[in-house]
Amino acid sequence: NEWALVASRRTALTRTNWPDVDDVVALNADAEVMRYLDHGRPMTAAQVLAEEMPRLMAHNGRADRLGSWVARDRGTGNFLGWFMITPVDEPLRNVELAYRLRRKAWGRGYDIEGMLCMIEIARAAHVSTVIATMMAVDVVSRRLMEKAGLHLVQTLVSETTGPTAAAASGEVEYALDLTMGARLPA
């Protein structure tokens, strides 16, 4: 299938599509998964149908493979989550990296495998910079960004006054320059 990738021996990636909706609904309904997203509120099934799935599938037709990919365990076929590498500007120079994994997949290396695959897609698309933005208090995601080769470039002051302490702490932006012969960590 032209829309399938192998991220590693353990992970298969396919374009996010409507058959994935039940898995995406379950993922976004998990309060712990959504802890640092959308003010810590899980998404309803209606929100996933109306907003999340169209957002995840928005770039499916791109020949450069930028967009959203569902991750599944190659051995079991179990849904792990999704990874996304999307254009930030036109003409294309910068892309944004994002991901969301089920709790069962946390701490097992799927996160870094998927991120490195997204970075390779960005490299093949000849972009200049991969960026990622997250809550400043999300230390696990921040460590993973650094492990994938991204570096902290700025702290963004949050203008929101969300219900969580995380919203009040602001966001951080990480970046990886792909123009200077930068290479991914081994």
Summarize the structure.
Helix content is 27%, strand content 28%. By secondary structure, it is an alpha+beta fold.
Key features of this structure:
186 residues; 27% helix; alpha+beta
Report on the structure:
The chain is of the alpha+beta class and 186 residues long. It is built from five helices and eight strands. The protein has helices at 21-29, 45-57, 110-124, 139-147, 165-168, and strands spanning 4-6, 11-15, 67-73, 79-87, 94-101, 129-135, 151-156, 171-177. The chain has an eight-stranded mixed beta sheet, sandwiched between helices. β4 and β5 (94-101) form a beta hairpin. α1 (21-29) packs across α2 (45-57). The longest helix has 15 residues, at 110-124. The two termini are 28 Å apart. The model is unreliable at 161-167 (pLDDT under 50).
Number of contiguous helices: 5
Q: N-to-C SSE series? A: EEHHEEEHEHEHE
Main pleated-sheet profile:
8 strands, mixed
3D shape: globular
Report the portion of residues in β strands: 25-35%
- Which strand order do you get reading across the main beta sheet? 1-2-3-4-5-6-8-7
Poorly predicted sequence stretches spanning 5 or more consecutive residues = 161-167
State the secondary-structure class. alpha+beta
Distance between the termini: 28 Å
